[in-house]
Amino acid sequence: MKLSNLAILTATITGVAAAGFAASHARTPAEIAARKGQMQLISVHMGVIGNMARGNIDYDAAAAQEAADNLAAIGMISQTLLWPEDTAGHEESRALPAIWEDRAGFDAAWDDFSTATVALQGVAGDGLDALRGGLGGVGRTCGTCHDTYRASAN
Amino acid sequence: MRRLVLVVSALVLIGGGAVIWLTRATPLPPESIAGLPGDAARGEDVFWVAGCASCHAADGAEGAARLILTGGQRFPSDFGTFVAPNVSTHPEAGIGDWTFAEFANAVQRGVSPEGAHYYPAFPYTAYALAAPQDIADLWAFWQGLPAADTVPPGHDVGFPFSLRSGVGVWKALFAQDGFQVDADDPEVLRGRYLVEALGHCAECHTPRTALGGLDRSQWMAGAPDPGGSGRVPGLTPATLTWSQDEIAQYLNDGFTPDFDSVGGHMVSVVRNLAETTEADRRAIAAYLKALPPRP
User: Least CA distance to A142: which residue of chain B?
Assistant: First the structure.
């Protein structure tokens, strides 16, 4: 009897430890990976346009237009399914609780990005000054959202 | 016995007097600010670099709304939550009825027109290093700003930090004259003035001691985010490896060299610095590149 109690206790401890180990080494939730990929996709295209605006590379109307088209396409991805509640506070994410406390505000911030990318798409091929104006509009929406809804890096 | 009582009473009086003396509010010498004419156009540049709107405009204000210094933003800290006051030109709700001397003493000494200490959430220890002419120009610009009649709630700070005389002790311990970094290069010197005086960058980018003073041995080495999430990054060459160009560009358009975007309170700082000159953004970058590396 005593022996079997010990066996059950040992099994329980092992099981709990294993579950804990599994939880701490769980794979990154697919939604978080997708969000990071989406941001990466944005930064690659912003880089093409931003480096032209900064004068680091020559203005190229066709490349600017292609990058702006893609940004506008990314802006059309609805965010509803990418930010489930159970990813709040995940250690691999800098998403702040404010996203889930103020979902309407967060969605509006993404809509502002979406609107600004469409405006950029409309002017990207019209020369460097027009591109700079459009980029400024998009950049403001990045900052506004990251001010409120993203934690500082560690 | 009676003599002992007298001696003790005398000592208490002297001790109390010393504490009052040590914690008194000391205004600027009147001759340092008398008769300075202000240039409003130059003052606008001071306004943006000094970051007044970042704390005193309404939370989330954008565009022209950043010129309405209505107050109300909340700043959590280890000592309680500070609430930015209305500093608009409204004569009752704001500071519209102040004199230039009262303004200069508030900004550079942390002393109110009534002679009380302001909490150092207001970065007057940095502004103390500013040129009096810049403060006069800033005040001239201020006169053209709108009036807002909102009165924000007071600070939410518990005992003993609610005692303002304690701020006098804090000032005696932590306020200091002079710049942190030695430099000869004119661009680095200009950057030092912008960073250490007007821009008060160290207020967030330098860690603090348990009593809330800047730990100057870790100047600009990064610190916990006072808002509670993540860290404010270090800016010395030990951690910030961007080129001078990349730093200056970030301060203008808010993008890192990898085109990630600025976040947190720095969003507002970049909006301010986008209003100043390319030369000044490059000077700030030159100063950061010249900092002694600290982890």
Answer: B261
Mean pLDDT over residues A30-56, rounded? 97
Q: What CA–CA distance (Å, rounded) separates B142 from B24?
A: 28
Nearest residue, CB atoms, A143 vs list B225, B229, B262 = B262
Taking CB atoms and an 8 Å limit, are B231 and A144 in contact across chains? no
User: DSSP labels for B44-83?
Assistant: HHHHHHHTHHHHHSPTT--GGGGG------EEEETTEEEE
Q: In terms of residues, how long is chain A?
A: 154
Q: For residues B139 and B52, is the Cβ–Cβ distance under 8 A?
A: no
- Radius of gyration over alpha carbons of chain A, in Å? 22
The structural domains of chain B, ordered by start, are: 36-174 (no CATH), 186-290 (1.10.760)
| pTM, entire model | 0.87
- Mean local confidence (pLDDT), B107-131: 95
B277 CB contacts (<8 Å, ≥6 apart)?
B45
- Residues B57 and B272: beta-carbon distance below 8 Å: no
Contact B232 A147 (CB under 8 A): no
Tens of pLDDT, residue by residue over B95-105, are 999 999 999 99
B263: tokens are 């976040």
* Complex ipTM value: 0.80
Q: Which of B73, B242, B253 is the best substitution to test chain A (most A C-beta atoms within 10 A)?
A: B253
* 3-class state of residue B76 by DSSP: strand
pLDDT digits over B47-68, tens only?
A: 999 999 999 999 989 899 999 9
pLDDT of residue A25: 54
Contacts of A154 in chain B (CB under 8 A): 230-231
- Look at B230 and A39 and tell me if their CB atoms are within 8 Å: no
Query: In which band, very low, low, confident or very high, does the pLDDT at B177 lie, cut at 50, 70 and 90?
Result: confident
- Any chain A CB within 8 A of the CB of B42? no
Collapse the DSSP code of B208 into the 3-class scheme (helix H, G, I; strand E, B; otherwise coil) and give the result: strand
